[in-house]
Specification:
By secondary structure, the chain is α/β, with parallel strands linked by helices. It folds into 2 domains: 15-42 and 261-348, Aspartate Aminotransferase, domain 1 (Alpha-Beta Complex), CATH 3.90.1150; 52-259, Type I PLP-dependent aspartate aminotransferase-like (Major domain) (Aspartate Aminotransferase, domain 2, 3-Layer(aba) Sandwich), CATH 3.40.640.10. Helices cover 35% and strands 17% of the residues. The chain contains 11 helices and 14 strands. The strands form 3 sheets. It has an 8-stranded mixed beta sheet with strand order 2-9-8-7-6-3-4-5, sandwiched between helices. Strands 10-11-14-13 form a 4-stranded antiparallel beta sheet, covered by helices on one side. Strand 6 (147-153), helix 6 (165-177) and strand 7 (181-185) form a beta-alpha-beta unit. Helix 3 (62-70) packs parallel to helix 8 (247-258). The longest helix is centred in the last third of the chain and has 24 residues, at 260-283. It is an enzyme of class 4 (lyase). It catalyses: O-phospho-L-threonine + H(+) = (R)-1-aminopropan-2-yl phosphate + CO2.
């Protein structure tokens, strides 16, 4: 028997079990703000018992509904975008991959395990961290000549940076001209669709990933979509295999994608809640930046603040590569009040 060379697990939000064990507070007494998931998720309609009984129908119209929703030529359903991230290195030719220093944590290890060289970049917002990165990713600046592929989370998680469609399209042009690929993770783009490249995803050298977990609050369904060329879809479909998305999840997601009225109302509601969260954090002396579903605070005292909030039963996500905290949206007025009070108390501790 030999030891397996297993990868180290990447930390994520939503790990409330860890907080419960560490602080001894029962689950029902926590306010979990550690994710960027909409706390007011889509009201899933009743699901027929037949959806539980039968094997998932990969040939239903879910992918056509998704393509229409995103304005894309085609969409491939996968078991959450995490499944696609693991498969992506097998679709791309060898070469250097650019991945953000402060971004979703699964990309770099996925490419490193597959033998790719990974160069970390920072955006202008993190220019003072330039020493820890290989390059700065900035609008109107050429990409490094050695770069073959680029992973861009837009809007970024957790840093909140967002690049315009024109800027991202120019990066795609540069990479495609050298036989490379731009991967755009638009997990949070449903709340701010104007910058999406979904309608251009048919182009070679461009792969767009979309998620229903964040904006629609359906993270438990584990459904995402890959938008890309016919070649990309054929390869990803072969890697995905059959029945990747369950029957009940297909029913729920289809309903959510077709409910335009709910989506319009939710975008307005999230914009108000996000502005309120940023203002609350700033009122307590925090330099908060925000996107629709969460706020980011860069703070050298992130560990102490997380601990202070946790002692009051409020769990937020802490990042170490660039010290800071991500705050999700409170689900109700009681949670808003508790966060306000706990932040006030944390300043005095």
């Amino acid at each position: 028997m030999t030891d397996l060379d297993l990868p180290v697990a990447v930390a994520h939000g939503g790990n409330l079990g860890e907080a419960i064990r560490r602080y001894g507070i029962a689950r029902e007494h926590w306010v979990d703000l550690s994710t960027g998931i909409n706390p007011h998720g889509y009201p899933v309609p009743p699901i027929s018992p037949d959806a539980w009984l039968r094997l998932p129908d990969d040939d239903d119209d879910l992918e056509a509904v998704a393509a229409a929703h995103y304005g894309a030529a085609r969409a491939l359903a996968v078991a959450g975008t995490q499944a696609a991230i693991r498969a992506l290195p097998r679709l791309l030719p060898p070469g250097c991959v650019g991945v953000g220093l402060l971004t979703y944590g699964e990309y770099a290890p996925a490419f490193e395990r597959a033998g790719f060289r990974v160069d970390r970049f920072v955006t202008p917002m993190l220019a003072d961290c330039r020493h820890a990165a290989a390059f700065v990713l900035a609008p109107n600046e050429p990409l490094p000549a050695h770069l073959k592929h680029l992973v861009l989370v837009n809007p970024n998680n957790p840093g909140t940076e967002s690049f315009t469609r024109e800027t991202v399209a120019e990066w795609h042009r540069q990479l495609a001209s050298r036989g490379g690929t731009l991967i755009v993770d638009e997990a949070f783009a449903d709340a701010v669709p104007a910058s999406s490249l979904a309608s251009f995803a048919d182009a070679e050298g461009l792969i767009v990933l979309r998620s229903v977990g964040k904006f629609f609050g359906l993270a438990g369904a584990r459904v995402g979509f890959v938008l890309g060329s016919e070649r990309v879809h054929g390869a990803m479909r072969a890697l995905r295999g059959p029945w990747a998305v369950s029957g009940p999840a297909r029913v729920a997601v289809r309903a959510a994608l077709e409910d335009d009225a709910w989506q319009r109302a939710m975008r307005a509601s999230l914009a108000d809640a996000s502005a309120r969260l940023a203002q609350l954090l700033r009122s307590h002396g925090m330099d908060a930046v925000n996107t629709a579903l969460f706020a980011w605070v860069r703070d050298g005292n992130a560990m102490r603040i997380q601990d202070c909030l946790a002692r009051d039963g409020i769990w937020v996500r802490r990042f170490e590569t660039v010290a800071g905290l991500r705050f999700g949206l409170p689900p109700d007025e009681s949670a808003w009040a508790r966060l306000d009070a706990s932040l006030r108390a944390a300043r005095g501790r």
